[in-house]
Amino acid sequence: MNLHAGHRWLRVLRTPTGRTAAGLVLVVLVIAVVGPAPWSGRANAVDTTNILAGPSAEHWAGTDNLGRDIAFRVLEATRLSVGLALAATAITVLAGLLLGTAPWLLGRRAGRLVSGAVQIAIAFPGLLLALFFAVIFGVGATGAAFAIGLAGAPMFARLVQTLVAGVAARDFVAAARVAGVGRFRILLRHLLPNIAEPLVVNATIGAGGALLAFAGLSFLGLGVQSPEYDWGRLLYDGIGVLYINPAAAIAPALAVLVAGLALNLLGEAVAKGFGMDALVGLPVPAGSPTDPASKRAAAGNARSEAEEPAGGSAGEPADDVVLDVRDLTVSFPGADRPVRPVRGVTLTIHRGEAVGVVGESGSGKSLTALAVSRLTDAAGRVDAERLHLLGADLRAPDSAGQRRRLGSSLAMVFQDPASSFNPTQRIGRQLAEVSRHHHGRNRREAFARAVDRLRAVRITDPERRARQYPHEFSGGMRQRAMIGMGLMGTPALIVADEPTTALDVTVQRQVLDLLTAIRAADDVALLLISHDVAVVSEVCDRVLVMYAGRIVEDLPTERLTGEALHPYTRALTGAVPRMDSPLDRPLPVIPGRPVDPAELPEGCAYAARCPLATQRCRDEDPPLRRHPSGHRVACWHARPAAPDDERKTREAPSAGEASPPSAAQASRNSTVQAPSASAVETS
Hints:
Helix 7 runs antiparallel to helix 9, helix 9 runs parallel beside helix 10 and helix 9 runs antiparallel to helix 11. The chain is built from 25 helices and 13 strands. By secondary structure, it is an alpha/beta fold.
């Protein structure tokens, strides 16, 4: 439950429905707890002189075939009826949690088998499942409890699977995975606390359904057996004398109705109080010194020139290489054939170097970063000739050592600071988790380290802030705290995926300055992914331009604006508005749309939008190779910008169009105005 759970429960009790339901449930529970003591004697007293008597002042609901008072028997049966219903609900919740979290814990293949079994079980009616399990476990109270509990487990398991899948896609779970936290620990600390409220709501509603189901089984003779009795058993006995004494059947039926209605109304009220009306309809019965910037740029240029092209020899990495990627491919299952949103990416990042990655949405930027961080979706397949972090092979199977290496050497900064932290845990505890898990620090030492890291990322009053929840932080503070989490270890590489997109300009400047300062102080490498060419130009030494899953140009930052060789790179930089842009002319745009990764053309993927494209471009995909100017480019017509290139870019029609798109249409396709990554890129 989160910080406001107590206030939400109070809000539930303030509504008329909530007060009524809570009152009824309280009465039922009190009767169940204290019931047998005051009236057990009268409920079991046999009076053969008063058999099958009708309602009277002495016997409000009459007597049964042994002269026992039916009203007192209904009151005494409350404990067994409610207790068995709650036991069945507990079995439903426990079995549903085990089945629902199995796909997360077991992985893709075993998890798929569990999910398939759950879906098959859901296809059968709940009553049929209950009867099936009743036959297996046998008649009686214990068998009926297991039968009803297991019959409700598939629907509860599907709910858990859905909720876990939603929370598992959040950035704070990815951050925990990058930190090397195991799946079971993530489940207990991050997933379950964030889905507890909807589970409580549905378990409450499911308790009412279990009560009705239990009464039904006892009525059919498969539940509680004589001499014990619950409401269903009393209803069964009352039906036999319905025409002699109707109250014998009405009294237990009324008890089932009131208790079931109270539990269901309470579940409805809790759902509305917690703001989860959509879930109610679910059919659930349950420091080193700083080098000058000029020296870094020169070193970056020399390293760029020393790299091999994508199709060439991989070679041996230098001693200062932090990340070495050769021929990285990421594929997902498609309707006809695998879809490859990342195709043959090769890059090398050295200590202290800042490398930027730019490109339109869907170009594969974020997916490349996720593949490096081992955060791709379970359905995705990552292949590479080499994928090394500090010389360690990231393609190796998951292990404690692998997780420890990632957690200590790699820091990930996500796009949305609001989803970067678990909302149910304090900031300091989340930062301290990294130190406790990887560095063996105790609780006090880890918390002190967390406070120190918050101070290092320029958060004022870090001791107080460490004890606050994420919602008490502003967006910029959350982003800085996220960077602080990455600094809990000794990271050699920071991967920042659109770290300033959700922030205003002032806070954006602060975050970028912080990343620059960290990189300079500790000689940390930086991989910065952004749509904003200006941001990358300001922060990075080298820029990788991606299009359709490939690196189409790799060049030093100072050459990006005036010396780019690829038409797409020039189009990207040309689409950035400038202060001296003529106000009477439309903004430059890139006509057409990016290609679909599932329908890649035979030749150059940019050919349909390129003003310089020839037939060779449409037939042959150019390799990424060294140009005489010094940097790498994948283009058959690589050259500096010609005087009329800007005009050709604006006038070139998009694929399938007879004329250039309008300014409104083109602006929607412009790289600088694309707000977020595509669905494929963020899978």
